[in-house]
Amino acid sequence: MVEFFISHGHRYLTWWMICRSSRFGRLQNIKCAVAGKNLYMRFSCSTGDAMGMNMVSKGVQNVLDYVQTDFPDMDIIGISGKPSVLLNFHFWIHYRVMYTVNDSVFSICVLSSSGNFCSDKKPAAVNWIEGRGKSVVCEAIIKEEVVQKVLKTNIDTLVELNMLKNLAGSAMAGALGGFNAHASNIVSAVYIATGQDPAQNVESSHCITMMEAVNDGKDLHISVTMPSIEVKCLANKPFPTLLVC
User: Fold this and answer.
1) What is the pLDDT of residue 244?
2) Which class is domain 2-112?
3) How many CA within 13 A on the CB side of residue 32?
4) Buried b (16+ CB within 10 A) or exposed e, 222-242
5) Which candidate among 1, 15, 86, 95 keeps its CA 20 to 30 Å from the CA of 209?
């Protein structure tokens, strides 16, 4: 019932309550997951060029205050602004339904506004599948002569190596978002140089590298897909290095 109350019946009011807390925060969608008596709610918002941690925390607090008017028995135990990303900010609330009366009246305990379903600074399939922060695809065409002279190999060998190592080898290891050759090295270096949160390298390094021969096998097409790059270029107290983002 709480899920329907927020994500369907009162969706416009939920959108407005998040908007009123910030000039830039805008609710995109709400997704819910149920585990027994536990309800996890995911608020996805656009937050402009900011990380969005504070603005969405305030917006979700407004939603909680509103829900409490219809569910007066709801007990808010704690509020935390733990999650922080730029686009598609995922803010999770952990509810526990204590009892029901006539299948309609609930006594609800809000255990935490961060239910670890974000999932912030931890590898998780939800970020790999649905994205978190910026979702990016980059591609390039490398000429055959460059492959031979600079990389000292040939296109067919590179394509086979990528398939056997980055794809099949990573699958054999049970990798989650690790179908690449050390994307985390580059992400970590850029994060440290530009004033980002280095700990968010965990999910930001999720990457799959694809290679194939193109132009009748004469050139190499290479691409990297990274669905959860968490990065900001604005903040309440911006570092000079943020300007280079």
Assistant:
1) 63
2) alpha beta
3) 15
4) bebbbbbbbbbbbeeeeeeeb
5) 86
Confidence (pLDDT) at 145: 96
* CA distance readout (Å), 23 to 1, 51, 91, 242: 30, 14, 18, 21
Cβ atoms of 56 and 42 within 8 Å: the answer is no
Interatomic CA distance for residues 31 and 226, integer angstroms: 22
Is 183 in a helix, a strand, or coil? helix
Average pLDDT over residues 214-229: 95
Q: What's the CA gap between 228 and 88, in Å, rounded?
A: 10
Give Cβ neighbours of residue 14 (< 8 Å, ≥ 6 apart): 6, 7, 27, 30, 63, 66
Q: Distance between CA atoms of 21 and 62, rounded to whole angstroms?
A: 8
For the chain, domain boundaries:
2-112, 134-244
Number of Cβ within a 10 Å radius of residue 102 = 5
Domains 2-112 and 134-244 alike in fold: no
Q: Which fold has domain 134-244?
A: 3.90.770
Q: What is the pTM of this model?
A: 0.76
